Task: inverse folding
């Protein structure tokens, strides 16, 4: 990662890959709008069907100029750095015509190809980070590819044994930054308890502590950890996972110098008097922490994958097929703009830590 980040030339805007996601959803529109809005500070290179994106950009605003690049040309000659008067698109052609709001499995593999190109681009030094628009998991699975989500896919493709999903954003009341990480991600609720182990929590806490320091610039991260069960198990009467798994993992992390505290009852932890002493909350499962985060920050939240050998952020919402079907102008690009800003901040913090 450090070799990639050190290649930026003075005076050249940092280049970030933006995969435009499910073509029938709002991803293409919000990617174009956000890339154009932030074009003076960051070179957002879109990855998707160039002809489709040029047409969409023109429909949004005829003043938005799009320059198409072939993946092969970039592989052979590197990424050209245009000025902020245009958006670059690395062409990843779709297989089927796009009807807004209507999924087509024939385009599933092309969506995956944009992720592959983004990962390749970071590894080759074209990009300093990746920002992903929402995709539709069902379309990719219907295309014959087993796919459970961006987080798991990036981990597999980069040979990363452990990653951590974290969402972050400014709270609607007060504006303080709220960060919520997950010990498990896209699992059925019935499988969560078995997936929690002392070793697994140890790896997660190590990743959280390291990335909060290195990518967020927090010198001494404070992590508050939720229990799994109601009332954090109530002394074992409502479950023993807190006693047998979570508390020992926290004790071991503290012995390694990590400021991780808990386990706390999740129903009372998300209050200002507790959060003011936290840089991140670690929830045990998806719907324990994310409803709170999204309620507090929706439209400004950012999805971040920690532990990867690259920086990857995303929006905090889905494909919004219903909005896409209504035509352009209905979608809010705010979360995508925040995802780009978060990626840029993480890039700069990582560069500062290399000095």
Result:
């Amino acid at each position: 990662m450090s070799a990639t980040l050190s290649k930026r030339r003075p005076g050249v805007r940092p280049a970030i890959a933006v995969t435009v996601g499910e073509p029938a959803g709002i991803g293409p529109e919000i990617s174009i709008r956000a890339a154009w809005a932030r074009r003076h500070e960051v070179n957002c290179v879109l990855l998707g069907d160039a002809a489709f994106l040029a047409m969409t950009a023109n429909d949004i605003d005829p003043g938005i100029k799009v320059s198409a690049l072939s993946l092969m040309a970039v592989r052979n000659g590197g990424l050209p750095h245009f000025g902020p008067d245009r958006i670059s698109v690395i062409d990843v052609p779709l297989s089927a015509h796009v009807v807004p709001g209507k999924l087509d499995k024939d385009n599933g593999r092309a969506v995956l190809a944009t992720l592959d190109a983004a990962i390749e681009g970071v590894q080759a030094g074209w990009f300093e980070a990746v920002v992903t628009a929402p995709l539709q998991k069902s379309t990719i699975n219907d295309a014959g590819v087993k796919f459970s989500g961006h987080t798991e896919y990036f981990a597999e493709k980069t040979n990363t044994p452990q990653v951590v999903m974290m969402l972050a954003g400014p709270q609607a009341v007060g504006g303080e930054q709220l960060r919520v990480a997950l010990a498990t991600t896209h699992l059925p609720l019935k499988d969560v308890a078995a997936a929690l182990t002392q070793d697994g929590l140890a790896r997660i806490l190590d990743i959280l502590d390291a990335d909060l320091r290195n990518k967020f610039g927090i010198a001494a991260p404070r992590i508050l950890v939720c229990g799994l069960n109601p009332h954090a198990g109530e002394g074992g009467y409502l479950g023993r996972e807190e006693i047998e798994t979570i508390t020992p993992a926290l004790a071991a992390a503290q012995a390694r110098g990590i400021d991780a505290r808990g386990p706390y009852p999740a129903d009372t932890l998300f209050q200002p008097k507790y959060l003011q002493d936290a840089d991140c909350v670690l929830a045990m499962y998806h719907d324990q922490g994310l409803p709170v985060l999204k309620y507090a920050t929706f439209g400004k939240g950012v999805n971040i994958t920690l532990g990867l050998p690259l920086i990857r952020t995303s929006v905090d919402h889905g494909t919004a097929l219903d909005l896409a079907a209504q035509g352009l102008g209905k979608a809010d690009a705010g979360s995508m703009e925040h995802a780009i800003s978060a990626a840029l901040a993480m890039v700069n913090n990582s560069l500062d830590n290399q000095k």
About this structure: The first helix runs from residue 2 to 5. The chain has a mean pLDDT of 93.
